[in-house]
Amino acid sequence: QSQELSHVRIDYHAALLALQEQGTRMVCTGKMHTDRICRFDYLCYCTEAEEFIFFHSNASVMLPNLGPRRFQPALLDLSSVEDHNTQYFNFLELPAAALKYMPKPVFVPDVTLILNRFNADNLMHIFHDDLLPIFYTMHQYTDLDDEARLVFMEGWGEGSHFDLYRLLSSKQPLLKEHLRNLGKLMCFTKSYVGLSKMTTWYQYGFVQPQGPKANILVSGNEIRQFASFIMGRLNITAEERPEGDDYIVVFSRASNRLILNEAELLLTLAQEYKMRTVTVSLEEQTFASIVQLISAASMLVSMHGAQLITSMFLPRGAAVIELFPYAVNPEQYTPYRTLASLPGMDLQYIAWRNTMEENTVTYPDRPWDQGGISHLEQEEQERILASKEVPRHLCCRNPEWLFRIYQDTIVDIPSFQEVLREGLKVKPNLKKTKPGNVVHPGRVRQPKCQTSVQAAHEAKLSVSWQIPWNLKYLKVREVKYEVWIQEQGENTYMPYILPQQNYTFSENIKPFTTYLVWVRCIFNKNLLGPFADVLVCKT
Ligand code: UDP
């Protein structure tokens, strides 16, 4: 397969000279291999050795210069999955003089972003591990624009949704196998290596059972902006639907983890909510047409599975109903719950689980990766069959987990209705979460304290401050102040919430004592501002 590299003409001679004389230059961000992204001039890749190469010359730069710590365990993670030992990036070193004896370099003149896709056959992984991180890594570096070239080094073929990767830049992404066809020694004129992990919200259970990441740094706003970008590239426009034309999308899987009474479920939903219902599946519709439908739906109902990543395209206020097969605890598998619950996603999330064993259909004789268990010891098979819930486990080949998650399910209609009625009782108040309402207060200004001693056991402490500077430009429903008073040397403090900008404390205030006082502003009960500099107040 031939790959058109670029229409940008480069002066081959000048590029070769620059590589020979300047060697490779690398400057990175990040203290650890897990948060590092590196920018290179003239990073090369030897397709025969399957190694990146750093050419040393008098002018080459390597920051950080880690010495042998570069191998402990690696320079950086090439995928967005944290510290996965199959996803490490490093390079070999050579003196630039060695170029004389090497194959003629082929230059890639585009600004490239070099990374590993984590699992390009699974829609959830494609969005969470690749597309979102690529999109926001490209936003981090201005020269990674629409003309940037993506280079995927994990070594797989295109995968099941390669078109989605094509949306991110105007140039055809390169796979590792393409590089081989282009030359023996590929040299990237300008490249970035690694991905931002800022947008990922889930860890897949390699070191501890799967769950939300400990420190989520993304909000619904960034997810929704990314989703709009994707919709734009798919030529989907948010259509205005006539009032009352609400509908529910049931996302079904055609090959496994089936809903066996889908027709009954659709009928129930239609009757209960007086809405049309539509079924979609990745086998039946194009991705774009599914996104188009979901982008205006009131509710998305689906079995647990990668297709639920499309819930990011739901309009604000919509509901996500995730169904779990028998013996699978929804609390332990929460990538889609976490997504729906990100602040600013403004989605309602409800999980339903099958608790009736007679409503499940198992497949013990399938291959292990589709949940079969007949290859296991008899005793182990019996234990799994008798178990009522998959115990906590690590990724990725736990046979009991695979057995249970690949069951088909008859959805028990009464319990489904009950869960929905319970879960949809409270409608989310979308007005509350308008973007303007997530502006945090600034510091209170000119905090002051005054003290006086009344008697041997009586003293007063008056604290006053001015409103935060940004408040005068905002309409805020409720402004309050929090004051913490701590006796110097004690490790507890007394907290107070006040509506006004000054207060005189006399309870618990002792004469001839030093108090530390912190003041901060709070908007609408829970938007906390920073504390002003601590006041030191002596009575
Ligand atoms: N898939 C599908 N239809 C099916 C089963 C799977 O379209 O009947 C897709 C699914 O959306 C995902 C990929 O195939 O993108 C891999 O599915 P798998 O069951 O391995 O992963 P999961 O959905 O549990 O994340």
The structure class reads alpha/beta
Number of helices: 11
Give the number of DSSP strands. Answer: 28
Q: What is the C-alpha radius of gyration, as a whole number of Å?
A: 29 Å
Distance between the termini: 82 Å
Residue windows where pLDDT falls under 50 for at least 5 positions: none
Query: Are any ligands bound, and if so which?
Result: uridine-5'-diphosphate
The general outline is globular
- How does the major sheet shape up? 9 strands, mixed
Helix content: 10-25%
Give the mean pLDDT: 95
Write a short abstract of this structure:
It is built from eleven helices and 28 strands. With 539 residues, it is an alpha/beta fold.
Write the layout of secondary structure elements.
Elements: H1 12-22, E1 25-29, E2 37-46, E3 51-56, E4 61-63, E5 76-77, E6 88-89, E7 91-95, E8 105-115, H2 123-140, E9 149-152, H3 162-166, E10 174-175, H4 176-182, E11 185-193, E12 202-203, E13 211-212, H5 220-233, E14 247-251, H6 262-273, E15 276-280, H7 287-294, E16 299-303, E17 319-324, H8 335-341, E18 348-353, E19 360-361, H9 378-386, H10 399-405, E20 408-409, H11 413-423, E21 445-455, E22 458-466, E23 479-487, E24 494-498, E25 502-505, E26 514-523, E27 527-528, E28 535-538
Parallel strand pairs: 1-4, 3-7, 8-9, 8-11, 9-10, 14-15, 14-16, 16-17, 17-18
Antiparallel strand pairs: 1-2, 2-3, 2-11, 5-6, 12-13, 19-20, 21-22, 22-25, 23-24, 23-26, 26-27, 26-28
The structure holds uridine-5'-diphosphate.
